[in-house]
Amino acid sequence: MPKDNIGPHRLVVGAHYGFKDWLAQRVTAIIMIAYTLVLLVAFLVASDFSYEGWAGLFAQQWFKMFTFVTFLALFYHAWVGMRDIWMDYIKPVSIRLALQVATIVWLVACAGWAAQILWRA
Predict the structure, then answer these.
(1) Which residues bind heme (predicted)?
(2) pTM of the model
(3) Under DSSP, is residue 30 helix (H, G, I), strand (E, B) or coil?
């Protein structure tokens, strides 16, 4: 067995080698860019800059869904980044696991809060 642990000879141990995470970061970034552009266009073409005008935009179901999907993309984007930071810089497994769990709990709570804000009566 060759001594190099790269390419087709690498030892697969369950670690993240990067492509899936790289792709997830790019896809979630594209979703956030698309949302920003839609919001910018809505702002530029709007004639009503009052609370009622913005509330009318956010009252539409498609915009609520697009906003929520964008929040989910943001939270997943943040998860990939934070998980990589914890894996790179926190060496004790117990501390790293505690930080990863705390991050997941925080992001899930943020997603719940975003849903509550968007769909509360």
Answers:
(1) 77
(2) 0.81
(3) helix
Let me know if residue 50 belongs to a domain: yes
Q: Which two tokens stand for residue 109?
A: 């709570």
Binding-site members for a ubiquinone are: 89
Binding-site residue set = 77, 89
- DSSP symbols for 35-75: HHHHHHHHHHH-S--SHHHHHHHHHSHHHHHHHHHHHHHHH
> For the segment 71-80, what is each residue's pLDDT rounded down to a tens digit?
999 999 999 9
**CA–CA separation, 118 vs 121, rounded Å?**
9
Number of domains in the chain: 1
- First CA to last CA across the chain, in angstroms? 64
